[in-house]
């Protein structure tokens, strides 16, 4: 199963279900632990659009990179909170939330 990185601003006009965890990564060390072959960009699933119309189900984890440059993967200042804007205009069903910050 794939994990999805929120790599662009997105509004979901429908419901969001995350069967794994929503993970906020706040350090390069933690990023190294989640950035693997199962991590794909959310835009691979939704397309390069600002508004996704419909319900969205993430079978595994939804990952937010909250340091450095969130959209291009380069290193930056830990804790700079440069997460993309992610809005759900509907209901959210989330199994778990994790904040990773080993820095």
Topology diagram in text:
Elements (H helix, E strand, L loop, with lengths): L2 E3 L4 E4 L2 E10 L2 H7 L4 E3 H5 L4 E3 L2 E3 L3 E4 L20 E3 L3 E9 L3
Parallel strand pairs: 1-4, 1-7, 2-5, 2-8, 3-6, 3-7, 3-9
Verbal overview:
The chain has two helices and nine strands, in the order βββαβαβββββ. Strands 1, 3, 4, 6, 7 and 9 form a six-stranded parallel sheet that branches. The longest helix is centred in the N-terminal third of the chain and has 7 residues, at about 30-35. It has helices spanning about 30-35, 40-45, and strands at about 5, 10-15, 15-25, 40, 50-55, 55-60, 60-65, 85-90, 90-100. About 25% of the residues are buried. The protein is mainly beta and about 100 residues long. It has one domain.
